[in-house]
Structures are given as C-alpha cells and as structure tokens.
Model the fold of this input.
Amino acid sequence: MTTMTDASLREFKMPDVGEGLTEAEILKWYVQPGDTVTDGQVVCEVETAKAAVELPIPYDGVVRELRFPEGTTVDVGTPIIAVDVAGGAPAAEAPAPAETVPAPAASAEEPKQEGRKPVLVGYGVAESSTRRRPRKTAPPAAEDTRHAATALQGELNGHTRGTRPLAKPPVRKLAKDLGVDLATVTPSGPDGIITREDVHAAVASAPATAPEAPAVPAAAQAPAPVVSYESGRETRIPVKGVRKATAQAMVGSAFTAPHVTEFVTVDVTRTMKLIEELKQDKDLQGLRVNPLLLIAKALLVAIKRNPDINASWDEANQEIVRKHYVNLGIAAATPRGLIVPNIKDAHDKTLPQLAEALGELVATAREGKTSPAAMQGGTVTITNVGVFGVDTGTPILNPGESAILAVGAIKLQPWVHKGKVKPRQVTTLALSFDHRLVDGELGSKVLADVAAILEQPKRLITWA
Done:
C-alpha cells in the first residue's frame, strides 16, 4: 500500500448538517479508495433526524480510506473519509469499508467549510447494504484509545475464549431474541467472531418448524440492523431517522404542554366556489390553488386578530414569548415519515406568494429534499388529515409551538342553509393549544375566526 505522510492526509469529519444534531447515518458512498476527488465533489449521502443530505469534500486529492460502511450511524465530528491531498498513486489494496482501521490522525488542520451548504437529495437506502455501527477490530491509533477500550470491554463482557462461541453482547442478545443457538452458527468475523449477519443467515436457513422468537419489548432490545427483518409471525422495524425524531418530539410535547382541543363544523361551500374562481385568476396561473391555501390564509388572518396565540412557553425563564412573525408549519407525510417544514414569514405574503410557497414546500417534501433549516423555527402548524378521508383529529403540538390546526375532509352533507336543508360542502376543524399560555377564550376566538372566514371568505378582505 502506498505510504502516506501526516502532512498529506486530510480527514473529513461528519459535519452538523442541521441545527444541534449529534449524529447522522451514512446512506451511500459515491467514491471508493483510490478514487480521485476534487473540491466540492459529493462523496456521500447521509441522513439525519431531519433530512437526507449529500456531503461535498472540501479539497482535492485521492481517497485513501472510508472509515465507515453504508448504514453506519456516525457521531458529528467523527472522521468518515481520509484523503491524500498530495495526490499520490492509488492504494494497491483498498481496505473494505466494514473492516477498516483508522489511520493516524493528520496533524494539519483540515480546511474550513464556512459558507458551504449541504446539497440536498432524496431519501432512499439499499436494504441489502445496510449495517449498524461496527466496532474497531484492530489495534487503534493513539487518538482512538477510547474506541479500543470500548471494543475490549465488549469482548470481555461477551465471551471467554475457548468456553463459549465468540460474539459481542448485542449479537448475543439478537440471537436470544431470534431463538438462535450461537453454537450452531458459522462465524464469518475476524478471529471467529459471530456477527449479526451470521445470526440472520442462521435464521434464514432454519427449518420452517424452528421455534418462534419470543416477543421482547422494543425498549429492551439491543440495537437492531438498519433493515427490517421477520421472525415467526412478527416483523421488527428499527426506529430511526425522521420517525425516531418525531416519536421523541411527540412524547416530549404530549407530556410537557397541557393540551386542549376544540372543534367546530363549518359550511365551506362559498370557500370551495372561491377556489374555483381563483384558479382562473391570471395572478395565480400555474400555482397550487386548493382548500389548504385559503385555510392557511384564514389562520394567518385569525392570528393577526388574536396575536397572543402565536407564542411559545419558555420554561427556563418562566416567560411567554410572543412572536411578531408567523412561520407557518405544514405537516407533510413523506416516505421518510412525518415532517413539518414551515413557510418563513408567512404573515407577510400575499395570496399568490403564499400559494407559491405552499407549492414549493409540498414538492420539496415529496421529493425528500426538505432541508433541516426548513423545519426549524415554526410558530404554528396546520395538519390536513382530510386528505386521508378523516373527519378530524386531536393533533399534538409541535415542540415550541402553542397551537396546531387540524383540517378534516370536506364532504357534501345535508345542512340547514337559509332555513332549508340543502346539500353543502362541510368540514370539521380542530384546534389544539397549550393551555399554559392559551386559555379557552383565546383558543375559541381563533378557531371561530378561522371558521367564520371559511364560511364567508369575503371576510379575508375586511379582516386582513
């Protein structure tokens, strides 16, 4: 292998591609050891709890080492790729990513990345290539002593040489959960160590009458592989990325903010007629004009009339923080899970501008290209459960927000209109709010204002 000097080696570390994120998963490598890279070239795709992002390398050189394989979750600040900036000949033997050993850390400071923005990409990961974070299996360099100590402790806890099959504690736990006897498993790891893949291979080759794996609470399980797997009559799917972040946020919100939800059923026939008229307006040609657009505008007008609803609770300082701007969140279901990007300064936008922003938000979310910044700083949210044919729901607040409006399906229903029962377009709205800073009167006023605008949309002109 070509010899590298400390002066020519650069280690590119996992950056914080979001706001305060601590880790990211490597979804895909676009380069391999021996490849030549140039400044700004995308070398890998990673996924955080908020978005999928492509990472560009900040210098020219030849790839010498990929520190982690695809599917590995890596802490922010950890070197993930080593590049020889001297541009020497490609290595004769490129180490396999899954079993590589970190090279000595470079003494030279790596170039700054100030001003660089991550290139956003869609979500997707090949199931056949995903694995969890591996332990180092060879003697580490001086700066990696901590990793070596962790791996050694895992070995001491996991087995005693010569008396039991060699496997680390998480692998033993996995085997136990799946009902696999490690003594019957053929090891493929270094020094005869049984890996997770060996355990899954044993499950796949077992007879159909093999004992069914016992059910184990999810919270008690060892870290699972990235891909889902079936065991008996169950399928276990690792909770990670957006779904994991959403679950944590919702639990925190539900058990921190005292939620109150109010409902109102509204005749939106006039709003639906106005939508059809707006679709013909030349100022809105080519833009998304739908019920969500007018509902969003109605909520913005209601917030303008009742500004105290647009606030947050500061627990540390015991203060209510009223926001003089509205970053309007729109809940979006994507292949990666539920995300809530927001339209910055939505209160200042005209109807055509709001329509354009909504269209861009939805299109970006569906393509899996929503940036972490787009999901930061929301002040109030709309969730449109009506697109699934649901009448309404009791939405949970986004952390840091005081209100969220759920919109139900718009249906043709019998309705008393001008003293007679007629078929009308009707929907049900639900407003959840934080009762620490929003009392029943304020919440009711906001919901009533939204309903009144949707029933008589001409109020958009008189109230805006």
Observations:
- The chain is about 25% helix and 25% strand.
- The first strand starts at residue 9 and ends at 13.
